[in-house]
Structures are given as C-alpha cells and as structure tokens.
Amino acid sequence: MSQRTIRFEPGGKEVSAEDGERLLDVAARAEIRLRADCGGQGICGTCRVELESGSVQPLGSEEEMQAADGGVLACQALVASDAVVRVPELTAVGEIPALSEAQLPETVAEQFLSMELPGPLARRIEIEVPPPTGTDTEPDFERLQRDVVRACPDCTPLTITLECLRELPSLLRDGDFTIVATAGDFRTVEHIIDLASPPARSAYGLAIDVGTSTVVVQAVNLQTGEGRAVSTRNAQIRYGDDVINRIVWSQEHPEGLEQLREAILDNLNLLLGELREEENVEAEDVIGASIAGNATMVNFLLGIDARPIRRSPHIPPAALPPVLAAREVGLEIHPEAPVSISPAVAGFVGGDISAGVLATGMTDSEDISLLVDIGTNGEMVLGNRDWLTCASCSAGPAFEGVGIECATFAGPGAIGGYDYDPEADEARLSVIADQQPLGICGTGLVEAMASLSRAGALDRGGRINLKFSSSRVRESAAGPEFVLVREGEQGAPRELCIKQTDIENLIRSKAAVHAGITVLLQQIGLRPEDVEHLYLAGAFGNYLNVDTAVAIGMLPDLPRERIEFVGNTSLAGAYLALLSREARRRLVDIAEGMTYLELGDEPSFTEEFVASMFIPHTDIARFPSLMAKSGQ
Amino acid sequence: MSQRTIRFEPGGKEVSAEDGERLLDVAARAEIRLRADCGGQGICGTCRVELESGSVQPLGSEEEMQAADGGVLACQALVASDAVVRVPELTAVGEIPALSEAQLPETVAEQFLSMELPGPLARRIEIEVPPPTGTDTEPDFERLQRDVVRACPDCTPLTITLECLRELPSLLRDGDFTIVATAGDFRTVEHIIDLASPPARSAYGLAIDVGTSTVVVQAVNLQTGEGRAVSTRNAQIRYGDDVINRIVWSQEHPEGLEQLREAILDNLNLLLGELREEENVEAEDVIGASIAGNATMVNFLLGIDARPIRRSPHIPPAALPPVLAAREVGLEIHPEAPVSISPAVAGFVGGDISAGVLATGMTDSEDISLLVDIGTNGEMVLGNRDWLTCASCSAGPAFEGVGIECATFAGPGAIGGYDYDPEADEARLSVIADQQPLGICGTGLVEAMASLSRAGALDRGGRINLKFSSSRVRESAAGPEFVLVREGEQGAPRELCIKQTDIENLIRSKAAVHAGITVLLQQIGLRPEDVEHLYLAGAFGNYLNVDTAVAIGMLPDLPRERIEFVGNTSLAGAYLALLSREARRRLVDIAEGMTYLELGDEPSFTEEFVASMFIPHTDIARFPSLMAKSGQ
User: Fold this and answer.
1) What is the ipTM of this complex?
2) Which residue, B293, B309, B341, sits at the end of a domain?
3) Does B318 touch chain A (CB under 8 A)?
4) Do residue A304 and residue B189 have CB atoms under 8 angstroms apart?
5) DSSP H/E element including B416
6) What Å distances lie between residue A617 and A378, A462, A550, A608, B169, CA to CA?
7) Do A490 and A530 share a structural domain?
8) Min Cα separation A392/chain B (Å)
9) Could you tell me if residue B593 is inside a domain?
C-alpha cells in the first residue's frame, strides 16, 4: 500500500496514511476529532469535510460519500492520494459545549455534600508531619499514616503504593517533613497513591456516564465541587446500536470485545483530553473517576465478557466490580487513581439506574416515586424509602436519534424544539446554541411527533396521512415521509425528512416505556395516580415539554406538577459518588435493596405494549386530560 | 570491545561476553551459579574454576586471581579471549543442599498449624458454583464470592483482580460452573488472583529469610506444609559487608539502591528457580511469599531508600509495609501473588526478630525468655507473654565467615566442628556433608576459638601465643596466625589459617552480643539467672555446642538445659506467617508490643563491651561453671 500525507486545515496538522484508510480514522489518529453522531455509519452527515486538494475513494457508493455543499463524509471517504482536508467549524468537535453538567435537587446536594469534606473518592492534602525524635520513633510510613488519618478519620485502613513508599523517606526529609499526600478510596482500604512536595496542586475527579448511545465526562474540581461536562456519541455504535447487538459482535469477532473496549476508552480519553486542555490540568492531577453506566457498557469498558447479560436469566458478570486503578482500566489520568463503578441491579438495570435513584433522592421520602430513565434502554424504578422495584424495556435508540436519518446528537445545530403550524404550513424550530439547524435530536423528534399528530399529519396509529394538505407529505421509494424542515427554512443547509419507518421506531420506543411503567405499577398493585413524583431522566434532558411526553402516550397522564425532568441522573449520581463517601455507601445499599422485575416473563407486558402502539393509546380513557382537551 | 564466546563445562553452555567482564558475572548470565561465599570479593576462594583453553586477565594482581591447584577465581578473572571454563563440582552451586528448613517447637506448630485450613497467605480451592436460574440471579462475581467465602469464612472482604473478572464468565460457563480459585490475603482484603478450570494444581508458597550475609528460600507445599529450603550468600556483600556500609553505598551511588535491589532479587529468583526445577513447579503455582528480614534488607528488596535507618533515631521507612503483589516486588512467581513482610520494631530490630519471637513461642509463657539471634547484627529480645524488650548490637559479619580468609559459607565442605588436640598437635574436623574441608564456617570459627583458648594457643586477651609449642603458630607479614588445617589434613586441598585480626573480629562480635545481653537485663532489672529459657538463633544453626558459646563468653553462664538452639527462627516465623492467618496477626501484635532499647544511648554498653573483650570475660566470676572447671 502507498504511504500518503494528509494535511488537515485549519491548523495544518499532517499525518501519514495508507491508501484505503477512512478519513475519519486518519483524523482521529491526527487527534482531530470530528463529529460523527451516528458513529461513522454514513447516516448523520455530521462528519462532513471539504477536500481542498487530492482525491478520495468512496467506501460504498459515490452517492453515499457525497455531503451537502460539495463536501464528503469523512466516514465514507477513503484515502487515495496525498490530500488537504478542511474541517468546517460545525464538524470540529471542539465546538460541542457543555450541555449536561450533573444536576441535583437541593435536598440531595445538601444531604451528601454539605459537610466540609464529604469523603471524596480521592483527596489531596498537605500534611505537616512532626520529624522523628529519640522519644517519637514512629517509622516514616506509620508516621504519615497517623497524620493522614488524623486529618481524615475515614481514611482507614490506610495503605500505600510501593512507588510512594519508595519516595517517602526522601520527600519527607527534603521537604522539612511537610508533604502533599493524595489518597484514594478503594472501598475496603484507602490507598496513598501519590506523594509530592508542597505546595499542593489543585486536584480533579471525573464523573462519567457511559450510555449505549451517549457518553458524558464531567471534570470536577475536588475542592469546590465545580465542574464542566462534555459529551459525545458512544463510538461503539459502529459495532451495533443497542447492547444486544454489541454483545453479539463481541462474541462473534475474535477481537470484538477488545474493539469495543478501545472504542469507549478512546471516547473517554478524548473527552478527558479536551477538558484537561480547557482547564489546563495535568493527567496526574486527575485523581479519581466515578463511573455510572448500564451493565453492558461497564463490562465493555472493563473488557469483561458480557455474555451472562445476553443469556437468561440476564445477570451482569459483576454487580459491584472492585474499585480499580486507572492504569488497569486505561483511563489517562493518574495511573493509580481509584476508578469506582456504580453497582448494577440486574443485567438490564445497571449502575446508571442505582445512580439515578440516589440522585433523585426518592429513597428519602415516604412518597411513592417513579423514576423513568430513557436512553437506548428504558428503565423504571418505583418505590420510596422502604422499597424499590425496577424493570427495564428495550426502548431502542430512536429517542437518541440513532438510526434516524434526519436525527442528530443533542449538540449545537440540533433542533430541540419543533412546532408545526398547519395553517401556515410552517415549522417553528428551537435550535441548540442558535446555530443553523443540522438535524433533529430526541426531544425534537418527540415534539415533532406530537405536533404532526395534533395537526392531523399523523393518524392515531402513527401513519403519515398521505391526504394531508401540504407538499411536505410525499411518498418516496421507501414509503411515506414528511419534510420536517425544508432546505433554507430557518437557514437549514439541507432538507430534514422524517420517514414512516422513523415514526414507527419512535412509537415502538414510547410504547415500550409506557407498557413498562404500566406493568410495573400493576405488579405492585398501584394505579398511576398513586405516583406522587414522576422523575423523567435521560436522553431528553431539560428540553422536552412534559405535555408532549404525555400527549404521545409515553408517560402516564398525571397532574403535570407531579412530573419533573431531572436530566442526566446517571451522571448526577456518579458526581455524588465522586464527592461523598456516604453516597458511595448508599449506592451499594440502593442496588442491593432493589427488586428486579423481568418484564419478559410478564405476559401482560406484550398486551400492554401492543395497546400502547397508538398515539396516545388504544384506551384513550387512560388519558383524561387529553380527552378533556380534545373534547372527547 | 571485542565479543568473545565463553563455554562452560560440564554442560557446554556457551554465552558471549565482552573483554573485561568478570567470569563470575558471565557465568551468572549463562545461568550457571558459582559459589562465591564472600560475594565475589576474592576472599573465600569458593568460585574457583579451571581454564581449559583461552586466557583471562586479573582484575587486581595475578596472585589474587590464582586459586589452589592451578585454578583461577572467577570473581578475579576478566575475559580476554574466547575461552572454555570448567566448573569443578565443588564450585557449582547446585551442590548446596537444604540445610535450614524452618524448625518449630511442637507447641508452636500445634498452636498455629493444627487447624485444617489455618489461613494460609494464599490458597487454591476448587469450587462448584450453582448456575444462575430465574430465581437465583446473583451475578457471576457475587456468586463466586458467596461460595468462596462459604468455603473459607475468613476470606472476607473478598475482591478480585480485573484479569480474573475478565475470565470469570467464560471459565464458569465453559467449565460447568466448577472453577479453581486462588485467593491471596492482602491483610485488609482478600483478592482472587487466579482462576482456572479444574482440576486444581498443587499450590506452593515461599518462606524467605533475607539476612545481611545469608539468604534462605523455602518452598512449601501449601496443602501439606512440607517444604524444602536452599540458601546462598547475599550477593549484596559486594557492596558492603554490613547494613551501614550498604546504606552508604546506596546513597553515594546514583544507581546504588537499584543495584542492591537487583542483587538480592537475583539471589531470590535463582534460589527459587532451583527449587522450582527440583520440584517441577510452574511459577504460576507459587502463589504467595512470606518474607522476614532485617529492616535494611527488606528496604533494599523493595527498593526503598533506607536512609532513615542510618540517621538517628534509626527508624525504618515502614514498620509494616503493605502486602504487595509479586510483580511489584519482582519475585518470579505468580505475578499477583501476595508478598507479605514481617513487621519491624525499629531500624535495627527487623521483621526477622518479630518472626523469631513468634517462632519460639516465648510470648505464650509467663517464664522469662531471652532470644538471641546472631547474624551480621546481633539482636536480643527479653520478655514473656506480658512484655517484650529488645535491643540490637552490631556483631559484625565475622560469625558468618564474612571478611575472614579461611572462612566459608555453611555449605558442604565447610568445617562446622573443630577440636584441636595440643598433645597430638592434630585437629579433629567435622565437615558438612562429609566432603573435603574447603573452609571453616561460623560455628567452626567459634569452636576453633574455644579450642585454641583451651589449649593455650590463645591467651585470655585473645592474642595468639607465639610461644605455643606447635609449628601451626607462626608470624606472617600481617601478624601472628594459627594454621587451623594443614594442606592434606583430612584431605584439605589447601591450608586454612586463622589470623590475629580474624580472632579480634570474632572477639568483638562475641563481646557485642554479651554486652547487649548484659545491658538489656540490667535495664529491666533482671539478673542472668532470671532467664528461664535462652533461645539461640541465627547463623550457628544447630551445629554450635552450647558449652562452647558459654566458654568464649558470648552467652551468659546459665544452666545448660536452659539454653536451646532454635536454628533460623526468622525463617521459621516466615513459614508460620505463610501458613497461618493467626500467625500473621500475632506478628503484628508482637512487633507493635515490643519496646526497643537503644544500646548506643546506654553508657554502660561501652563499659560492658570492653569488659567482654576477653575470653570469656574480664570478670571470670560471672562464669561460675567455667571457674569450677578450671579449678579457679
């Protein structure tokens, strides 16, 4: 194969490549991260680049490689000569701002974080150790131990890495017996993982949410608790868009598990690199990571065979993996930093859900609460301070925009709000960061569905009404479609179309969630109106209108004040666990105390699912507020 | 430099070498281990090899390189051409048999080892795990954990290495849920360090004694407790013959600490390799190591700066280092095997002494006992079940034969018993393994001193009596000397001579021990006769006659039935700690409960030392049994 040189502009970074390599991969090697919301599947168009010189070959057809405005999709273009590639501003990933810092109810934040030192996963303290004398002959390590435990009484039993033990005698004596110690909580034991001369440098920790479709990393200053998050698509999407497909991939390819591990690790390390660069933080100063994710994602991240999750009775390989050192996991932070993973309940109810329960504070009250976390899977937890029951349904990745051509990741340029006015035949769009509309994110898709249904462009069965009086409705080779955004509408660079199959995917997703909630309530013997608080977490962030979620029949028709968007509770729980020892303990209690209901074993689930495949439902009587509105 | 080829016979192993390399080092690289009892200092003559072809250059003078019978000392000969080197049987190290398996009083063995599973440092068990079902949905790790803890209730809290967690799902399912788990005790937590399919292979552990001059490794079958030990000279001797000189070396040379670490590690790994070869054991099946040694030796082995030991108040860097994984230490056994180190009391009273107290069982009785451990340092512990006080004196390495030209390591060919008959002017020798006498070991030196003193060849001040009527006494350029063994006497290949300076070294050593014992007793307010049991441990093994030790004034003149040789108690304690959890706990209690008396701070120590520089003592009244014998 020929060696080629590819230069990326702006910046002029050059990297050599072989004929046949994907531009997307070449860019990654040059540490230029492109958006590729669909994971490089040629669907989303967000990896569009411009070829200033040289030529490329299409991976599939020429047509699939071509992007709007004469660009090419980096995921579909193969190196064929030396080339100069321009990365448009909208394609460069540095543009994705923080959208999803962990949010916490004030009561919860107070409960875990109000103490001065709530027991972070790792901490850095400056200690003045009295020098040994003839009457105080405690050895160096025991001397340090004594004073560290005096400063943090919960740092016990306290041990030390060999590396630190080697440095201890000279650091103590060269630094007049003042030393900066970094200690990490490895659950059964506290480890001194770093020693240095004063002054103490700022220390950071990570809260990480590993979702099937989306990955979020938040860097947190461990002194102030302040942090900043960045997120991206889970790069594993190229190996399958849900957990089952990825488990199949990992089992059917000899290096499959390792490929999945590397994909997510690259994601995390890239996000981490951005955060570190922005905040000017050394890797050694990131001293702990708290991770929440579903069981499959956590297993892939750790390189653990996930096959028990796939086979009945669908158990995770480990509910509570040991706290590991970052070097073992492959996270590019302090090599000995503790990496703590939120405990799972079952194969399909992971540590993201335990973290979610923690973050909502629902176990602090007698009120019955329902947490609904919608990602690629939908999980729901019902309970209060005395009991918790959970279930999981395969919502599919439609709400995260995966597998839907007009969809995109909830970053700048994504349409998060959509309202179609049939009178004017115009759409009112809210675009994230007020940029030109590039695609529509999960929230926008739900709003679009509700809006089209209201306008009559969709019937109650979710079929696009071909008789609807707008040129937006048309029949394509693939079936009926509706033009959500015309080219040029609010500056859109290309037309955005929703297909009949997309609608069906979305309806299946919402039906799965609704059926899950219904069966869970039935099994406990409760009615929807017994739920005092419905916490909606996950993909939709704060953008979705509660009325819309009820209008499409995803959520039960509760008084609206009982429904609350709580954002990314997985990340919020990971954040709590990063900062509070009590939170880490509570997480374990929550996971251990939760009863798992296998919906697949409940015959009523299939019935409820089928009944929910309407907008809002076959039984409209379950939605009295909608009946009242429509005058039925 | 020219590349040469050196062939070693018998065996024909070839290795390339550069001009100027020492033959001793070339042999080591070829994995041919030569005896070099003095550590390669050109003193002991035990590295004698024969040059069959080719030439060598002397490191120092030609004379220093030449050995008896036309051989050369491998430590003094530098490569100068291609060469064929013959290693005589007596030089090859494979010949050193097990001399020092751990010995234990029956009461102690019973106390710690009588249970069926006394809680070894690491254990291997075959476990049948019930497969998961719809009603038993415990995850893989928690499932294994449950059954391991059921089988060994003290294995808790139980965690697992990431490596094992990765293998767990497939090993369970491919092996019908029967699995062989290896778990190691890391003090605060038990780790699953290895998983395999059945059947379970035999597992071994190591008990290791790291002395300043001598290193012993015992491989123990963890099922039966049976073991076999091999020992060698500590290769660090080349960097200094006592701990202070080696600390100085480590501080004054940029790579000094690392050189010391590598030297002892090579020692251990070579001994280990021999044991593994003999018993046909894989490295992965050696699953734990229990180490006792003085604080300096332990620090060098771990690569820890030992300077706090040298400076007042002479504290060790750590009294109780964490349990480390073998890969961290560099021991060539299972990489995750726990390496547990016996806790130190003070800079000069190490874990070898805590181990010794444990092994004697002296803390089980109300009787006042005195443990005297004589190695390169002399340490003494006085006490009973209620209290323990210890002290240390710099005995010097003379008792281990280091620095004495006629001396050798206590291996085959070493003279362990010596009795000079002035009437016949003949010496009666006991030679270890009944081989031809090559040198005299520590025990032999003490017996020779006692014997010459009795015969009148030494006066009470330890001076060689030039008027003694034997041609064995002569004056050399270096002063008076006594021919202990004539060439040919009992087949001796060379003459063995003791010099006036050797005698002085030996007297200093015994005087330090005696003064230490005396001051320790005085400080506690006890008289020698209050000691019910005197345990003599260390260099002398079982070979020294108790009467002799009293006759030269090393030990107090107690009724002989109160004095007991207890062999290598450091090794015996390490052995107990390898096999028993209770022993490991007790070791920590012993070390923490011991009061250290700094003899250097006691003015009476110097007085006592000077008074003890006679045979047996300036104050003969302290030795009533000797007075009675000599009719004084």
Assistant:
1) 0.89
2) B341
3) yes
4) no
5) strand B414-421
6) 18, 11, 10, 10, 42
7) no
8) 15
9) no
